[in-house]
Amino acid sequence: MPLDAPFRSMMPVGLATMALLLSGCTTLPSSGPTARQVERGARHAQAPLTFQVVNLDAAAFQRLVAGGDDVVAGAGRLAVLAREGRVDTIAPGDELQINIYEVGMTLFGGATNFGGASAVIGSDALDSSARTQRLGTIVVAPDGTIRLPYVGRLSVAGSTPYDVQRMIEQALHGKSQSPQALVTVVNSPGNSAYVFGDVSRSGRIPLSAARERLLDAVATSGGAKAVSADTLIRVTRGGQMAEMRLGDIRSGSPDDLTLLPGDRIELVRQPRSFSVFGATSKVSQVPFDAPTVSLAEAVARVGGPNDAQADASAVFLFRYNAAEIAAGHPPVIYRLNMMRPESYFIAQSFRMQDKDVIYIANAASNPVSKFVGIINQLFSPVLSARFLTTGN
């Protein structure tokens, strides 16, 4: 059909515009790189930041099922603080109850009968003249000493109650007849751990010979206010600090630390989330809202790959592991090919981690589709005007 003269005059301009647009296809707006660009970046040895692309294939699936891949769960981080220590030594500020028992000639006045007529222990086992003197509550001074009548000042910091008993008995030897001492720690701020933050009851946790663990302290404090999977537990010990998710700590594991005096335990509410970019319905930051989320569930939550834009064979998961990078290992990008049926089983087994980033690559045909759309927008008014003026 011959074109009218006005439209023939526009053809050079249109052809020039098309040529310009074709040359600029690569500069059309895009939500991110294609699969080829991601793969090329992994092979670029001179890239500012190198990374590794791992295909989530059948071999990866077998590792996931066997639990032999660290993509399932990160290694614990609290175990680095583990060390030996005692909780039965006396420290400044401790409150001691001291009883002194004597037989025969007593040194302390105002003594009371130990046992007396109602004593269950027989007279053969205990002299009826045995006396006990309760010295009351004695607080250990800041310099680690206590002062007792007829004994003087004793340095008790760092000693056990048994050690202090022997000190007192030796100091009274020759002054009292067969002296015996009994030392009990009534209150020991020095042998305590402290729990605070997002817990039901913050406070001091006394430590005993039962050797309380980290999870024991959390339970004693009433537990975390938020769910354990969204709670970060931060332990400070001897100037060092380590942290990990409360939900990742297993009872009795190396991360379930045996508490030591002075430990500071802070619970912080930190909800987990992952981000989604690329050819999806919208860019999103999605909270976990569950103890665990698989890659399949994560992709489904954002509506999956966009049929009109996405390359379903190129679903990438970017995972930043600071500990691995500090050890000299490159960041890892996992690639899932959702065009393969077995990939859906793999995606069900692959557990998401906090701050993971999912990127669904654009299809290679996207620039062409966008170009065609621009051409339609450019010439549609012209064709519509021709139809209205000529009727054909």
Task: Give me some keywords for this one.
392 residues; alpha+beta; Outer membrane lipoprotein wza fold like; 3 domains; five-stranded mixed beta sheet
Number of helices: 9
Spell out the CATH superfamily of the largest domain: Outer membrane lipoprotein wza domain like
Domain count: 3
Structural class: alpha+beta
Query: What letter string, H or E per element, gives the SSE order?
Result: HHEHEEEEEHEEEHEEEEEHEHEHEH
SSE map:
Layout: H1 5-23, H2 35-43, E1 52-55, H3 58-66, E2 95-102, E3 112-113, E4 131-139, E5 145-148, E6 152-155, H4 161-172, E7 180-187, E8 192-197, E9 203-206, H5 214-220, E10 231-237, E11 240-245, E12 264-269, E13 273-278, E14 284-287, H6 295-301, E15 310-319, H7 322-326, E16 332-336, H8 342-349, E17 357-362, H9 366-390
Parallel strand pairs: 1-16, 8-12, 13-17
Antiparallel strand pairs: 2-4, 2-7, 3-4, 5-6, 8-9, 10-11, 10-12, 13-14, 15-16, 15-17
Helix pairs in contact: 1-9, 3-8
